Structure formats: structure tokens, C-alpha cells
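call fold(seq) -> C-alpha cells
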Amino acid sequence: MSSTGEATKRPARRPATRPTARQVGLEGGHEPGAQLPEAARGFLAFLEVEKGYSPATVRAYAADLEQFQLFLARRSKSLEDYEAIAREDATGFLAELHRLRQKKSSMARKLSTLRSFFRYLIRHHLLAKTPLTGLRNPKQESRQPRALNVDQATALMDAPVRTGPAGIRDLALVELLYGSGLRVSEALSLTVDDVRADRGFVRVRGKGGKDRLAPLSEASRHRLTEYLDERDALRPAEAEQALFLGARGGPLSRREALRIVSRLAVDAGVSQSVHPHTLRHSFASHLLQAGADLRSVQEMLGHARLSTTERYTHLDLRRIMEVYDKAHPYSDKAGGKDHAMQADEARKGAAAASGKPCPADSANIDPGNIAPVNANSARKGAGKTPRKGK
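ret:
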């Protein structure tokens, strides 16, 4: 009790909580996975040197391993003693991620990281077999890429920008993301020497260290040429070769690129949320809508598998169905039932006037009662009279 007779208030104890997914990520300024055991650090070096993974990808792998390391520590285990890790530890880790409300795609990626780590140990004769045998990825949600329509993309490319070199840089960046379909990491890793505006392409370093040539649109060539003329006004650091520069003369960061795209979308009056990857989705879907073949789009996007590119065909089909629903007179959403009934009555009236039977209406035929017809057997049976009694 205090001298005033009031009870002294003690600070409330904060309940112990498990670390959240965001608390597990790597802090900038040190080597990815610096706190991990030697085997895990060797795995990260293998990814960077032998597999040619980008620094961002290696950091993601390191963050996944660090998160699993923290989980193992609560079970008195460690990645250092990898032979003691059991299948139950991995399933418990997935259950923990589920409690943290991680997306199933994130859970699958972390599980993929663990699979790659144990494969590395087996490949280097450090482990006899993986403890993840029979462990499946969580069932993924069916999500389609979000893309802008052509009018929205055009408005974004024509959005008002800041005056000066920074505004010219912003327009060059969004034109490149949409006009060439680059990933934001690919655009930000470009150097001045990678740009061949006079020849209409840029040299891109994609995932896995794979290089490709990406075509430049006429607008991209103009914007990039204009930006390169003004690039020195952004005061690049000594010997800095990055194409896109930030406020301090160093390479433009992903966060700055996200702000640029978001701000231009708002200024252009685009209602939906727009990220740099939205422009890549829009590039692919607009090409397919214009009749480009899937294999060419795959090469331009730098996809290793055609199935990845096939996601964009669903966007094109959905757009086609929306147009049909709005415009076709037989569409239910456009009053198609009324049109079909009117057409049916007209056919019946014409049949009654001519005295001929009314042809069957396709709307009244049950597709389940129609037997499939084999074209070859139909041709062979043409002109033959069926035998009696059969």
C-alpha cells in the first residue's frame, strides 16, 4: 500500500506467445542463415553457388530454415542434429504454420525448402534417408492471377508523374514491367549495359540464373532512351551500374518500386490494388487475348514449365464468357431465355402454317440421352438396312 492508501499498480504480465511468422524472418545487414548450423549454411551456399539462385531466393530459404530451427528448439531439437529429426517434427511444423494462419502456398514453399535441405544432405552422404517420406503438400487454393484490363493498363501508362528525372524513371519502370512482362526482381537487377533500346530488347537474368532476351515495346524503347539521358541527374554512386536508381544514387529497392506502381495506379484512377506483378499478369493475359500462342508467351515470361503459363488461359476464357454473358442474345444474363422462347414459338408457328412437323428444339434435348457416335462406324453403316430381329 502507498502512503495515499491506494494499492500500488503493478505492470500486467504479458502472456507468453509463440513467435509469429514475421518475427522469424531475417534481419537485413548480415549473411543469410548466419545463425544456422554448419550443414544448413552449406546448403545455402550450395543454392547460391552451384544452383545459381538469386540473393532474394537464398534469403527466403534461410528464413524458412530459421523458422523451422526455432520450432525444433521448442522440442529440444536442432537442425545441427539432423539425424534426430522425424516426420512428426515436420507435421508439427505444418500444424504450427496453420495455427499462425499461414497461406497454404507459404506452407508448401516451406515444406519444399525442407525437402531440398534433406535431399542436399543425402546427396552429400550426410544422411541415409529423408524423414519427409510420404508427406504431401497442403491442398492449394485455386487462385487465378489478377490482371488489369486494356483500358486500365493504358491509363496507368499515361498517368501523371512527378517532374524531373524521378518521374521519367517511374514511367520507364512501369512501361518495362508491362511492356516486357518482367518480374520486379528482374527489372531491378538490370544494368545499363543490359539495355539495347536501339535493337529493341533487354538482357534479363531470370530465376535460376537463366538469361533470356525480352522484347521492348515501342513505348518502352522511348521511355528507356529518355531515362538513360536523365539517369546521371539522379547522382548514381561511383561505379554504380544499376539501371534504375533510388533516392540516394544506389539501386532502386523493391519497396520503392511497389510505391511507384501503387501511386501511379491511384493517380490513373485504377480502382483495384496494383502491384508490380499485376503488370506482368496483365502483359501475359493481353498477349493471349490478342491471339499469341502459349509457347511464345512462356518464353517471354521465362517460365520453366508450360503449366505455369497456362494459368493465364483461364483469365482469357473468363473474359470471353463475360463478353458472351453481356452481349449474346441467348445468354441467360442478357435475357436469353426470352429470346429462346420467342424463337421456339416462331418455329412452331412456321411449322403449323406449312403443315410439317416442328423440328426438335435443341433446348429441349437432354444431353444425357444422346449416345456418342463413332464417325468410322457411322460411315460403314451408311446405306445398310438393319437386320430384322436384332
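The longest strand covers residues 201-205.
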